[in-house]
C-alpha cells in the first residue's frame, strides 16, 4: 500500500512515521522549498506525548522542550483563579511538554529522514488537486512551474488551514473564519520563573497574557527560552490587509503594547518588558473553519488543521493532529480496505474534533478567567466569592475531558484556591 501525503507539517510527518511503522509506503509533498523550524511555543498534551513516545521520540522531546509541571490561571493583577498540576505531576503516565514548534517539527522531521530516507519528502512541490477511481488516487502536483502527477492507494490532506485537498472536496467553502481576535506571539531568553516548568495565563475578556518556558538555555541554567502571547480584540475589524490564518506575519509593537501596558500588574513578569526584549515576533488572526460533515471520500481524507482548524486555545492544535495520525495509521494497518479504514477514521475522529472546535469558540479552559474578570474586573479578595470551586472546575475540567486529556485521578487541581 502506498500513501500520498500533502504537507510536511507536524500532522503530515507524524502520519508518515506511523504509516512506516505499519509497513505502508509513503511519499510526502511539501509546498515550501524546505521543512523550516518556524513558529514559537506550542504545548504537547500527554495523550499526544504518549504516541510520540511509542515512536521513540521521548528523549528528543526532553532534549528540546520543558516538562510542564503546573498551569496557573490568574486575573490581570496576577491573583490566582485556578491552578493545576500537569503531565506526570497530575497523574498521567507521560509528561506534557511546552516546546518550540520549530524544534518539535525538527525532531519529527529528523526521525522521518532517519527512518524513511531523504527522498521521501518532495519539497517545493504543492498538491493542487486529485482524481480517484476504484483502485488508485492520482495527485496533481505543481513543482517549479511544471505540472506533475503521483499515484498511490490513498491521499491524506495534511496541508494545513489553507488545504488544497479540502478546497477540492468543498469548493464553495472560502476563507477561514476570523473571530476578530488577534494573537501576538514571540519567544526570547528570559530569567527562570518558579521551578522553570510553570505556565501562566492571565487576564480575561479584554486581553490575555500567556507566559511559559519552552526550552533550557545551554549556556545559563538560570535562563529559559520563554514563550509569550497576547490575545486581544483590536478595534478595527480587519487590521492592515490581514491575511487570515497566516502564521508568519510579523507583529508590530504599537499594535500589541496598548493591550498590556498599564493593564497587567503581574509579579512574575512585566509583559511590556518581555515583548520589547523579543525583537521579531508574530501576529496571527484567530481563525477556524466550520466543522465538516465528512472528511473521508473514498481514497482521500483530511488530517490535522486541514480537517479541523481551531482557535489556538487549550493546547490542542498539534496534539490532535498527532492523535489523528495514529488513529488513521491504526485503521489502515488493521483494515483490509482503504475506503473502510478511512471511513472508520472519519467516524472516530471527526465528531470529537467538531466538539473541540465549538468548545474553543466558547473560550476553552481559559473561559475560567473570562468568567472571573466579568464578575470582578478590579480584582477580588476571595475568588470563591466570585465563582465557586465547582463552577471554575466545570470550565477547566469539562474542557480537559472533552479534549481527551483529563487524568483519571487528577492530583493538585485547584490547590490553594478553594
Ligand atoms: C509556519 C507555521 C508556524 C506555526 N506556528 C505556530 C505556533 O507558533 N504556535 C502554534 O500553536 N501553532 C503554530 N502553527 C500551527 C500548528 O503547527 C498546527 O496548528 C498544528 O501543528 C497542526 O499541524 P498540521 O500539520 O495539521 O498543519 P501545519 O502545521 O499548518 O502544516 C501544514 C503543512 O502543509 C504545507 N502545505 C500547505 N499547502 C500545501 C499544498 N497545497 N501542498 C503541499 N504542502 C502544503 C505547509 O507548508 C505546511 O508545512 C504554525 C504553522 C505553520 C505552518
Features:
alpha/beta; FAD/NAD(P)-binding domain; binds flavin-adenine dinucleotide; 5-stranded parallel β-sheet; 418 residues; single chain
List the helices and strands and how they pair.
Elements: E1 2-6, H1 10-21, E2 25-30, E3 41-44, H2 46-54, H3 58-64, E4 66-67, E5 70-74, E6 80-85, E7 97-100, H4 101-116, E8 121-123, E9 125-132, E10 137-143, E11 146-152, E12 154-157, H5 164-169, E13 177-191, E14 198-203, E15 207-216, E16 223-232, H6 253-256, H7 271-277, E17 282-288, E18 300-302, H8 317-334, H9 338-361, H10 367-375, H11 383-386, H12 389-402
Helix pairs in contact: 1-4, 1-8, 2-8, 8-9
The structure holds flavin-adenine dinucleotide.
Question: Gist?
Answer:
With 418 residues, the chain is α/β, with parallel strands linked by helices. The protein has helices spanning 10-21, 46-54, 58-64, 101-116, 164-169, 253-256, 271-277, 317-334, 338-361, 367-375, 383-386, 389-402; strands at 2-6, 25-30, 41-44, 66-67, 70-74, 80-85, 97-100, 121-123, 125-132, 137-143, 146-152, 154-157, 177-191, 198-203, 207-216, 223-232, 282-288, 300-302.
Amino acid at each position: 500500500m502506498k500513501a500520498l501525503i500533502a504537507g510536511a507539517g507536524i500532522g503530515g510527518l507524524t502520519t508518515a512515521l506511523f504509516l512506516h511503522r505499519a509497513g505502508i509506503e509513503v511519499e510526502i509533498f511539501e509546498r515550501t522549498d524546505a521543512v523550516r523550524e518556524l513558529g514559537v511555543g506550542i504545548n504537547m498534551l500527554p495523550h499526544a506525548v504518549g504516541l510520540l513516545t511509542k515512536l521513540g521520540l521521548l528523549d528528543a522531546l526532553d532534549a528540546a522542550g520543558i516538562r510542564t509541571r503546573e498551569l496557573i490561571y490568574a486575573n490581570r493583577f496576577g491573583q490566582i483563579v485556578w491552578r493545576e498540576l500537569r503531565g506526570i505531576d497530575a497523574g498521567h503516565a507521560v509528561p506534557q511538554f511546552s516546546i518550540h514548534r520549530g524544534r518539535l517539527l525538527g525532531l519529527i522531521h529528523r526521525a522521518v529522514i532517519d527512518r524513511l530516507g531523504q527522498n521521501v519528502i518532495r519539497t517545493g512541490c504543492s498538491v493542487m488537486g486529485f482524481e480517484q477511481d476504484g483502485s488508485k488516487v492520482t495527485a496533481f502536483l505543481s513543482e517549479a512551474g511544471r505540472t506533475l502527477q503521483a499515484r498511490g492507494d490513498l491521499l491524506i490532506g495534511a496541508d494545513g488551514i489553507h488545504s488544497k485537498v479540502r478546497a477540492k472536496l468543498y469548493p464553495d467553502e472560502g476563507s477561514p473564519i476570523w473571530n476578530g481576535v488577534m494573537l501576538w506571539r514571540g519567544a526570547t531568553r528570559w530569567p527562570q520563573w518558579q521551578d522553570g516548568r510553570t505556565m501562566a495565563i492571565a487576564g480575561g475578556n479584554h486581553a490575555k497574557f500567556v507566559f511559559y518556558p519552552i526550552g533550557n538555555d545551554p549556556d545559563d541554567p538560570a535562563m529559559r527560552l520563554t514563550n509569550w502571547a497576547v490575545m486581544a480584540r483590536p478595534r478595527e475589524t480587519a487590521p492592515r490587509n490581514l491575511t487570515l490564518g497566516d502564521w508568519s506575519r510579523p507583529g508590530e509593537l504599537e499594535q500589541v503594547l496598548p493591550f498590556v501596558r498599564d493593564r497587567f500588574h503581574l509579579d512574575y513578569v512585566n509583559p511590556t518588558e518581555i515583548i520589547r526584549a523579543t525583537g521579531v515576533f508574530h501576529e496571527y488572526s484567530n481563525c477556524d473553519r466550520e466543522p465538516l460533515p465528512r472528511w473521508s471520500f473514498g481514497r482521500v481524507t483530511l488530517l490535522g488543521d486541514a480537517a479541523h482548524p481551531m482557535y489556538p486555545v487549550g493546547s490542542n492544535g498539534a496534539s490532535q493532529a498527532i492523535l489523528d495520525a495514529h488513529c488513521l495509521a491504526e485503521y489502515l494497518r488493521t483494515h483490509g480496505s482503504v475506503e473502510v479504514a478511512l471511513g472508520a477514521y472519519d467516524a472516530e475522529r471527526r465528531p470529537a474534533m467538531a466538539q473541540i472546535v465549538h468548545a474553543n469558540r466558547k473560550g476553552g479552559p481559559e473561559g475560567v478567567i473570562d468568567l472571573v474578570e466579568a464578575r470582578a474586573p478590579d480584582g477580588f479578595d476571595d475568588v470563591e466569592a466570585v465563582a465557586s470551586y465547582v463552577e471554575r472546575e466545570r470550565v477547566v475540567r469539562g474542557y480537559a475531558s472533552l479534549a481527551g486529556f483529563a487524568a483519571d485521578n487528577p492530583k493538585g487541581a485547584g490547590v490553594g484556591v478553594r
